[in-house]
Specification:
The protein is mostly helical and about 325 residues long. It has eleven helices and eight strands.
């Protein structure tokens, strides 16, 4: 049993105790069935799963237990436009929205911090104190429009998909950073400054290897995760804004930075990245993806500090 599942079980049993409710074998079976099943489950869906374990469990007990799971924050109610109330995992799962097909009722989950930012701005404009919100877009999916047979749904843990996307965003930042440092090394007319950029590019390449290893490990943990639809919709232009503009360091069309100036430019990029990803992590609830962003921000901050120490050493060496 994983750590998250143990926490969810304890959360459920604590809620029962605090509200004077009894723990029963039937509730245990229902809880385990829900925690072990991904996707959007109706009462009937979960009842069918539970009955394979215990045929004595009634649908009313399943309904009441799902309501309890919702009340204690383990589950969340959603509606997909077919008249049924469904339940999805909530605990340590990122807040997200749904695109729902009105014909086959397939639901695609997605998260968009940019969308959340716009919503926050509108809420502030009208002086509201938000409690909760949900966005559901209804339409017709491509399979239904093209009259293609429905493929068997592959259900993945939303938190795992979010972690995959978070690692891919971190990799995108590292790749962009390496490209910047290599380009700066190629253009720098100062040989010592050129070596500074080349060294930093090599350090970033090592970090990329660590991120790629983490991503591969994630793919091994859950089969088919690599092909799962994108969950976190991220604007890559946000990363481009973090990259310093080398043109402002040109003099008469020549890019020439000594070692100290090269370190200053590198520190600017690492500091911006650390601040961006720390702020980005704060947009999400406690999840594996959030921790990935926090860890990446911490690594960027450590790299910034290491560059700052090198710059200080250069100043001490140059001092008379």
């Amino acid at each position: 049993m994983g750590k998250k599942m143990r926490e969810e079980r304890e959360l459920f049993y604590t809620y029962l105790r605090q509200n004077g409710l009894k723990r029963t074998h039937q509730k245990d079976v229902i809880l385990q069935a829900f925690l072990s099943t991904e996707g959007h489950l109706s009462v009937e869906d979960l009842h069918a799963i539970v009955r394979k374990k215990d045929r004595k469990v009634g649908i009313v007990t399943v309904f009441r237990t799902l309501k309890t799971l919702t009340a204690c924050g383990i589950a969340r109610e959603i509606r997909l436009g077919d008249g049924l109330t469904r339940f999805e995992h909530s605990y340590h799962h990122p807040h997200h929205h749904h695109i729902i097909c009105t014909e086959c009722h397939k639901a695609i989950e997605f998260a968009s911090p940019e969308l959340e930012r716009i919503q926050d701005e509108i809420v502030r404009k009208y002086h509201f104190s938000p409690r909760h919100h949900r966005l559901q877009v209804y339409g017709v999916c491509e399979d239904c429009r093209e009259h293609r047979p429905m493929p068997d749904p592959v259900r993945h843990d939303t938190e795992m998909i979010f972690a995959r996307d978070a690692l891919q965003v971190a990799l995108l930042m590292e790749q962009r950073g390496i490209a910047f440092y290599r380009h700066a090394a190629e253009r720098n007319a100062d040989p010592v400054g050129r070596e500074v950029f080349a060294r930093i590019a090599a350090e970033e390449a090592s970090h990329i290897g660590e991120l790629e290893t983490k991503l591969e490990r994630l793919f091994r943990q859950e089969k088919g995760l690599e092909q799962a639809p994108i969950f976190l919709h991220f604007d890559a232009r946000d990363l481009e804004r973090l990259v310093p503009d080398l043109a402002r360091h040109e003099v008469d069309g020549v890019f020439r930075l000594d070692a100290r100036a090269s370190l200053d430019v590198a520190m600017e990029l690492e500091r911006r990245a650390a601040e961006f990803f720390q702020g980005y992590a704060e947009k999400f609830s406690e999840t594996r993806g959030k921790k990935i962003f926090e860890a990446f921000a911490d690594e960027e901050q450590k790299h910034y500090e290491a560059l700052r120490r090198r710059a200080e050493e250069l100043l001490e060496t140059a001092a008379p």
